[in-house]
Design goal:
Blueprint (H helix, E strand, L loop, with lengths): L10 H4 L5 E2 L2 E4 L2 E5 L3 E2 L3 E2 L6 E6 L10 E8 L4 E5 L11 E5 L6 E10 L5 E3 L3 E5 L15 E2 L20 E7 L5 E5 L21 E10 L7 E9 L4
Parallel strand pairs: 13-17
Antiparallel strand pairs: 1-4, 2-3, 5-6, 6-9, 7-8, 7-10, 10-11, 10-12, 14-15, 14-16, 16-17
């Protein structure tokens, strides 16, 4: 069986079937005997739950081949390859499950290689896969009351704000209607929430004030800002 000549193997074909190839020498127009057929290494596998089960056919280019697996990291224009560090390698087996749990977001490839002591080598096609970005928690919304009633009964007597406990730092400035700062802090918490007194300790008059809140250090480095009005009502 002389097989067939195939001079146009494309990438899709290489990823879907194994090929046999031979080398034939031609001397002065005379075709000499062909080498024995050698089968290319076809690697197959797909990532599932960050595991990549890999299977490949045995290579017959030399006797007793042993295999290693290499991981390629995409750099935008190609791949940077390193051997997978696993006590299982080199192996005479034709299957391996690659664990991708430690990989960061990016595009990767896997390939199988076999080498001789004389430096000859053969490698398989590549399996490519991507690791998506981890879902990022959104910024926690601040739910800000627009009224509170400081007074002796202690009911609704402090301006507590839902959501600020999710941030490392909360800055607050409160202005009166003329733009004067009446209260400010760089570390606002609900345990020491504003009780309607100015920074100097005096009770602020009943009425409407204006605030600016800046919260930083939230989940995944998120931040939140808000501004609006807050009304103080005082009970007799």
């Amino acid at each position: 069986d002389d097989g067939y000549d195939d001079y146009g193997v494309n990438a899709t074909d290489v990823d879907n079937q194994s090929y046999h190839y031979q080398v034939q020498f031609v001397a002065n127009g005379t075709e000499l005997q062909r080498t024995s057929p050698v089968q290319s290494i076809l690697l197959q596998g797909n990532m599932n739950n960050r595991q990549v089960p890999m299977n490949w056919n045995d290579y017959n280019g030399w006797g007793g081949p042993v295999y290693t697996v290499e991981l390629g990291v995409s750099n935008g224009s190609g791949y940077t390859w390193t051997a997978v560090n696993d006590p299982a390698f080199p192996t005479a087996g034709t299957s391996y499950t690659f664990n991708a749990n430690s990989l960061a977001q990016g595009t990767y490839a896997l390939r199988v290689k076999t080498n001789t002591v004389n430096g000859f080598q053969s490698e398989s096609n590549w399996i490519t896969f991507g690791i998506p970005a981890e879902p990022q928690d959104p910024a926690v919304a601040l739910r800000i009351p627009n009224l509170f009633t400081p007074g002796p009964d202690q009911f609704n007597g402090r301006w507590t704000i839902d959501g600020i406990d999710s941030y490392d730092k909360v800055e607050l400035k409160v202005y009166d209607r003329w733009g004067k700062v009446v209260f400010e802090t760089e570390n606002y918490t609900n345990s020491t929430a504003w009780d309607g007194r100015s920074t100097s300790g005096r009770d602020c008059a009943e009425g409407t004030y204006f605030y600016v809140i800046t919260a930083t250090g939230g989940p995944n480095g998120t931040s939140a800002e808000s501004n609006g009005s807050i009304t103080i009502l005082r009970e007799d």
